[in-house]
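Structure first, sequence second, as always.
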């Protein structure tokens, strides 16, 4: 393209990625130069935290993202256009942006929300971009790959299913006036904020098709990372897509579960770390894990957590992964160091394939 550079380019002296259709991995090589193939499953800010850490240690990273969001900008676009909710996909792409000016500028741009008195209010730029490309290309995966190329994303983002999903939950005490009653609560946004106790969740439709590229990525991975994130609305839904669960059960990849730093108000209020494992096992009884990662400060009862992890075939790794400011958020560098240590200690003997 010729002509004067854009105002944004002139102001910030942004340098685009080295190649228009790819990027140069930052992490140091392993073995003969190959890096572990890592697939991260989740949604929302929990998955973003994991991706921000993982992109620091591997250049072969795929995010598989839940598509049950029905709130905010995503919910409005979903209702109006019948599309997949783009919000969690957008957040994953933003997390995969690099730390250079190009990556950080585009991360801010796609996360930017409009503030107005009109129909654009609270819509995120990235949501509109993703949906526009879906309509233009007619292919969810191709469109997301194109957005990733534009951003210079350090990895790939895939939806877990090609159809919009509805999350439903059985909740005890959803109505505070009837604390002992169990009701069916519909919608991810409602489930995430319920004042009651979530007993179980399921998806509608009950057997949604998985995106083939997501299944292939899990089967071909060296490591699969599940969590952190909203337990019932972002983590467990991946186990409710039959083809994706089958891939998790049959893959030769090692599986690490990353626990949250604190219970989530509403959804997992009062949950201990071991209870998170117990409800996960109830939704996927055949799923085995290799490693459970937790922050030591968030584990008051190490013995109980060890017992719960052992029932899933896993060992517990404790590491300082929280931000030093005391907030229940993961520190990207500390989380990256914890993942790197786990991959080295529990990975295959010899160089990465």
């Amino acid at each position: 393209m010729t002509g004067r550079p854009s105002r944004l380019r002139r102001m910030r002296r942004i340098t685009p990625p080295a190649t228009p259709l790819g990027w140069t991995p930052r992490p140091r090589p392993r073995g003969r130069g190959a890096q572990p193939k890592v697939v991260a499953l989740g949604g929302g800010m929990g998955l973003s935290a994991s991706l921000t850490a993982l992109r620091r240690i591997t250049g072969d990273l795929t995010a598989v993202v839940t598509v049950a969001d029905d709130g905010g900008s995503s919910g409005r676009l979903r209702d109006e256009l019948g599309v997949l909710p783009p919000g969690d996909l957008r957040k994953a792409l933003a997390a995969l942006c690099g730390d250079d000016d190009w990556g950080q500028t585009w991360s801010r741009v796609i996360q930017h929300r409009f503030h107005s008195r009109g129909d654009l209010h609270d819509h995120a730029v990235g949501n509109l971009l993703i949906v526009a490309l879906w309509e233009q290309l007619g292919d969810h995966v191709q469109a997301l790959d194109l957005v990733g190329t534009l951003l210079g994303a350090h990895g790939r983002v895939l939806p877990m299913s090609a159809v919009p999903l509805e999350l439903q939950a059985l909740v005890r005490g959803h109505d505070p006036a009837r604390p002992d009653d169990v009701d069916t609560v519909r919608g991810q946004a409602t489930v995430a904020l319920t004042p009651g106790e979530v007993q179980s969740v399921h998806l509608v439709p009950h057997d949604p098709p998985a995106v083939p590229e997501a299944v292939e990525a899990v089967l071909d991975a060296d490591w699969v990372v599940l969590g952190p994130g909203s337990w019932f609305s972002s983590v467990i839904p991946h186990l409710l897509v039959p083809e994706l669960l089958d891939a998790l059960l049959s893959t030769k990849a090692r599986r690490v579960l990353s626990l949250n730093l604190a219970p989530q108000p509403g959804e997992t209020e009062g949950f201990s770390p071991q209870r998170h494992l117990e409800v996960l096992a109830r939704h996927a009884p055949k799923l085995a894990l290799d490693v459970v990662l937790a922050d030591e400060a968030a584990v008051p009862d190490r013995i109980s957590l060890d017992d719960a992890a052992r029932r899933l075939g896993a060992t517990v790794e404790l590491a300082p992964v929280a931000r030093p400011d005391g907030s229940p958020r993961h520190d990207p560098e500390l989380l990256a160091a914890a993942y790197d240590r786990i991959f080295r200690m529990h990975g295959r003997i010899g160089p990465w394939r």
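Margin note: Confidence is low (pLDDT under 50) at residues 1-33, 349-353.
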